[in-house]
Amino acid sequence: MANSESEDFESADEEVMKPLEYQDQSHQKCRTPSPEKHEASPPRPASQETASLPSSTASPPSATAPNPDSLGAKPKMPLKSKTKSQSRHRHKDSEDVGVSNTSRPNLVDGGQKKKSGSGKLGVKITPSSILPSEIGALDKKEFHEKTKVSWSDNGSADHEEINDSIRPLLDKLSSLDVVDTPDQATDSTAEKHGSGWGSWGQWGMSTIMSGASSVSSHVTQGLSTVSSVIESGLGAEDPQEMARISVETDKSMNLKGEETCAAGQTVSGFNVMGNVLKFVESTGEMIVTSGLNTLESLGKKTMDVLQEGDPGLKKKRALFSREPDKPTLSQVLKEARGRAEIEDKERAEAKHASRARFETLFDDYRGMVHLEALEMLSNTCQMKLEAKLVALSGTPLVEFQRKLIQVKEQCDIPDDEDDDEDEDRGSIEILERDLTAAMRGLMVPVPHTKLIRVCEDTDTWLATMRCIQDDDTQTENDDWVDEEDMAEDSDPQNGLRDIHQQAIRALARFTAAVAEHFHKTAELLLLKEEHNSQIESQCVVMMTSVLCSRVSSVAARFSELLSASANMVDSAQVDHNDVNLLITNVFLEASNSSSYIQDASLLLIPVLQLGAVQ
Amino acid sequence: MVDPIFDYQFRLILIGDSTVGKSSLLKYFTDGKFAELSDPTVGVDFFARLIEVEDGRRIKLQLWDTAGQEKFRSITKSYYRNSVGALLVYDITNRKSFEHIPRWMAEAKRHIEPHRPVFALVGCKLDLVKNSSNAREVTEEEAAEFAQTHSIPHIETSARTGHGVEIAFRSVTQEVYDRILSGEYSVEDGWDGIKSGFSRPSGIDFSLEEAEPARSSCC
């Protein structure tokens, strides 16, 4: 049942969505399907209703004829006669007992729906207060048409009554010179027939009315929902919500479509072809107009939003204008994205570079390769230990394992150093003293001259820098003679970076020297004939801790130098975030350096263990 | 300091009896200097140099200078594994050092396995035999013959004059690189014989690789 009509509805649905310029076409479209229906419809209702409706089957041809003219005439119809005829028809309707009762609630229902629909319109579609009145007018039009058609169709039993009600109308029409033959023809046929059709015709008509009104109310409801959603959406609506609502709207539209079909079917069932045509036409019109109104209000709203803070849309027009020399929006966006990508890359590279500098320098000073060599030695020792372990069993095995664990525990570096002599722990004197003691304890002839030389170089550099700073502060107060010396680095930022670079270099060089020292110690420990693993472990721990102290001391002194230099120069010239970043980086690399040193000492453990079990 | 930009890093190891001149050879190769006196190497020392192979690729050579003393033998064995090439170094004026070469070679082969290292036979102290041929204890012919039987290059060098030093290292480097190109060697995880370096922007590398077959096809 719904299938035959759904296409028509779809066409109407499309028209609602169509922009303004298609309005005229849509009108034509509205009409085109009607003849088809006119031909297609009769057989089906006939089969359904022939028994109950013998007289109605003959009328269709005459029904179609008056349509165009009555369409032209109806706006002139006085309101009074309309209401009058309506009340009469309703009266007739209620008198008629035989006709299906189910259709009546439809009428009432439709009226209610219409009311609620317009009420909703009043609330929801605030910009388009035109809508309710528009719909009202349409309804009236329709009603009138139908009245006329039904009258012309049936030539009813209540001939006189209808004549009464229609006379003023006819008078009006004739006075307008629009009424012509069809009307008169129908008039005569009406008189000829004189059988009880009126109730049927009226029933059909009222069904149409209710159908149409309910359709219109549904449509407007749907539209109001859409528009209200879009209104709020112009703020910031969740797109998913929007999608959901639009789906719902579609659904309700479909429902309405079915209703339309139902209404159309009923009508055709009663063979009131003219009514069908008109109904389709007017419904289409209604949907289009109300749809267009809604679209218009939406468009206005959109323009309002677009023009906010951009009067005349100058900016946006400039942005979108496709002049050949001006870049398009997509180009602008593409370029912006490209720039952002490059910036990100550069930032990452800069970060990587500062991170890699320590590693690179450490590698260049051969720290890495010494560490690798130490690891290889350590692995060899570990393999030897495992080989021995496999060969053992029983008590010797337990003893062997006990020794291994003992050495491992002895090599644990205490977490907290005593802070008492923190100041001195990094000094070269303490370092030299502890290293000498450690080497004596380990009894390996590894010279620590290289380590000490590296430390001395660093200390000398730091001392020189401090002297320059002191000189600077003095000359600044006294006179301007040494200004040139002071302005050695014209850019204070560069001066700070130099200090930072020097700090990283000093740390890398020292760490490399430590790696070499540990490597050589391991090599010579392996050559040693006799071992006292406890003393060896203690010495390794002492050596590790004094070297780590040296690292943190160097880092601290470079950081002091950095902040002192930053404070000396004009604060406007130096970005203090940069200074903090440099200082943080120095400490970061210092901790990196410490972890290398601790790794190296851990690699010594298998070497010491091997010595312990030999 | 070594330029950080290179395509590959090869690890080469120098082996041979003590006092044959391994450290001096390396010092000349990396520093261009000759030290009249040098301390015996303890365990292993390291040198590095950047070198260009025939197609212009930059290779960083990481050179492991092992102690030749017998007492370090147990330690130096640990260092063989991660080498891709080994220079078998003997002293032209020391017959024994040459006679020990097969032993060194066998040891290197055993410890570098499963990898097949690139060898080169390098005779040192050529400057000592230039003036007085009496000093020579190993003839060039017999050394060359040994090299030929093992299909390895043979170079006589002098760390004092620098004669042959560059060629010795270059031949090994080129052979390693050729084996990479032929697919015999590749960068492997857990093996440091060959490492890929801090690569240049990849575009340059691609263009080099693309240009190569075209050039060879037209020649």
Automatic annotation (TrEMBL), chain A:
InterPro entries listed in its UniProt record: DUF719
Basic residues bias: start-end ranges: 77-91
UniProt-annotated stretches for the region Disordered: 1-126
Low complexity composition-biased segments: 50-66
Ranges of Acidic residues composition bias in the record: 1-14
Key words of the record: Phosphoprotein
Protein family (similarity comment): Belongs to the FAM114 family.
Alphabetical list of PANTHER family matching this protein: FI01459P
Name by which UniProt lists this protein: Protein FAM114A2
Species, as recorded: Thrips palmi (Melon thrips)
Lineage: Eukaryota, Metazoa, Ecdysozoa, Arthropoda, Hexapoda
Gene: LOC117646757
Automatic annotation (TrEMBL), chain B:
SMART domains reported for this sequence: RAB (SM00175), RAN (SM00176), RAS (SM00173), RHO (SM00174)
Subcellular location: Cell membrane; Cytoplasmic vesicle membrane
Bilayer topology: Lipid-anchor
Keyword set, alphabetical order: Autophagy, Cell membrane, Cytoplasmic vesicle, GTP-binding, Lipoprotein, Membrane, Methylation, Nucleotide-binding, Prenylation
CDD domains, alphabetized: Rab39
Biological process annotations from GO: autophagy; Rab protein signal transduction
PANTHER family: DRAB11-RELATED
Protein name: Ras-related protein Rab-39B
Lineage, highest ranks first: Eukaryota, Metazoa, Ecdysozoa, Arthropoda, Hexapoda
Gene: LOC117652171
